[in-house]
Amino acid sequence: MNNKRQWLNEFITEVIDGWMLTDLRRLLNDIPHRPNAAGNCNFPIALYVFACIEFLGQLTSVTPINTNQGGYTTNSIIGFINDFFPDDFKQKIQPYQNNFVNIFRNGLAHNYFAKNAGISRTEIEPLQVNEQGMLVLDADRFAEAFIASIIKLKEVIRIDSNLADRIVDRYGNLYQDHLRFQFTPTTTRISTASLAHPDTRLTTTTPPPPPKETSS
Fold it and tell me: What domain range includes position 50?
């Protein structure tokens, strides 16, 4: 097994399976929906899935995504959905694809609420229009579609060496970019993701000890 393939397997085990999916399953399973009660974590679940998709979309897209240009978030998220999400989910959001990220991801990330839309945990369909004419994204169905997309991603990685190389190379570049980041009170440019360490065989400098998740 070459160095890149070995590192990619470790990345999948540590970051995707170990952090992303484990945290997501904890949110889904340890916080069951309680009707008409607070604390159902509708918003955190949906926003967390968007964060995972945006990160993976930057690593997997055929065309490199320039994070210094407008629209990169939409390109990352919609690109990953189109490439790896189940067909039934893609069909549901297709009529709203141009606004899907702005309504839900950008609304949740920047304004706390989705923009004139809702987030549920009780619907059968992942996306639908309610009686008031508002779009409603179901966080559980969204999360289930993301989990299914990881299964497809792993299957494609096994047979597509170009995809495997893209993920490793771009992740290494992101990591090196983070090493160069220097915070000052006047800094306006911010880091793009919290990264686990790539294998030192893929970098030109020796990385610091890997960051580890800690319990609060």
Answer: 3-202
Strands 127-129 and 117-120: unpaired
Which helix (H) or strand (E) covers residue 128, if one does? Answer: strand 127-129
The β-bridge partners of 136 are 118, 128
Query: DSSP class of residue 201?
Result: G
pLDDT tens digits for range 82-111: 999 999 999 999 999 999 999 999 999 999
Vertex 30 angle, CA 27 and 36, to 5°: 85
Q: Does residue 151 fall inside a structural domain?
A: yes
Q: What percent of the chain clears pLDDT 90, i.e. is strictly above it?
A: 63
Query: With b meaning 16 or more CB within 10 Å and e meaning fewer, what string describes 162-186?
Result: ebbebbbebbbebbeeeeeeeeeee
- 211: in domain: no
Residue 214 covered by a domain: no
Output the pTM of the full model: 0.83
Q: What is the mean pLDDT of residues 4-13?
A: 89
**Tell me, what amino acid is at 181?**
F
Number of domains within the chain:
1
C-alpha–C-alpha distance, residues 102 and 211, integer Å? 31
**Triad 151, 156, 162: Cα angle to 5°:** 140
All residues at 6 or more sequence positions from 191 whose CB lies less than 8 Å from its CB, including other chains: 178, 181
> 210 lies in a domain?
no
